[in-house]
Request: fold
Amino acid sequence: MNNKWQAHVTVAVIVEREGKFLLVEEETLASHLDVYNQPAGHVEQGETLIEAAKREALEETGFEVEPTALLGLYT
Reply:
């Protein structure tokens, strides 16, 4: 049994071009309503935050992004 605590880290990407933002449409599990979010997801084992952000954006939108800034870290 592994009692070692492990963090569950999520990244989100804000992409803006010419005053427009890249969003993904998702259906909420609880209410089955469509909502719009920024591309986001969990960091996989061995990934950096930047690698995870780029992968999630590509997986969810088909766009390759290159992060240029860090907005914040929250716990």
In short: Strands lie at 10-12, 16-17, 20-21, 24-27, 34-37, 40-42. The CA atoms of residues 52 and 74 lie 16 Å apart.
